[in-house]
Amino acid sequence: MMDELDKKILNRAQLGIPVSDKPFADIAEELGCSEQQILSKLQDMLADGLLSRFGPMYDAASLGGAFTLAAIDVPEHRFDEVTEIVNSFSQVAHNYKRQHQLNMWFVVGTESQQEIDSVIKDIEQQTQLSVLNFPKEEEFYVRLYLPV
């Protein structure tokens, strides 16, 4: 269960982390607690699975890299097996299941378009399934805030 401080931390983190020498101390001051409490709570939420990831989001393309959204039509009886294969690639940022014919979606982030092509080819070879590549055509920024 989340306590009130957990909720405050998650709500505050969704607004962005301050750029400073001590960003968590800054947040702690805003929330009326200690920096150590903030760090401990975040570590606990990660350990408990309440958060799956806590870290920056980079625009790979603006940093000289490349990324794409990809999808696979995975037979249900092979879903766990294919998930393990896809997730074994360090270039796969995240992977999720959808209720659709294309039931596995994942993001591939690499240093180059050639590496994306190589990762997709390797996934196809290892899974014996076709990977559909959906590269970004246009960028939109949508600020998402889900208060808890």
Which features would summarize this protein structure in a list?
single chain, alpha+beta, Alpha-Beta Plaits, 16% strand, four-stranded antiparallel β-sheet, 148 residues
Describe, in plain words, how this protein is organized in 3D:
This protein has 148 residues and is an alpha+beta fold. The chain has two domains: 4-47, no CATH class; 61-134, Alpha-Beta Plaits. It is built from five helices and four strands; from the N terminus they run αααβαββαβ. The chain has helices at residues 4-13, 23-31, 35-47, 79-87, 113-127, and strands spanning 66-72, 92-97, 104-110, 131-134. Strand 2 and strand 3 form a beta hairpin.
Annotation, overall tally of beta strands: 4
Predict the CATH topology of the largest domain: Alpha-Beta Plaits
The portion of residues forming beta strands comes to 15-25%
How many domains make up the 3D coordinates? 2
Strand and helix map with partners:
Layout: H1 4-13, H2 23-31, H3 35-47, E1 66-72, H4 79-87, E2 92-97, E3 104-110, H5 113-127, E4 131-134
Antiparallel strand pairs: 1-3, 1-4, 2-3
Entry summary:
This protein is of the alpha+beta class and 148 residues long.
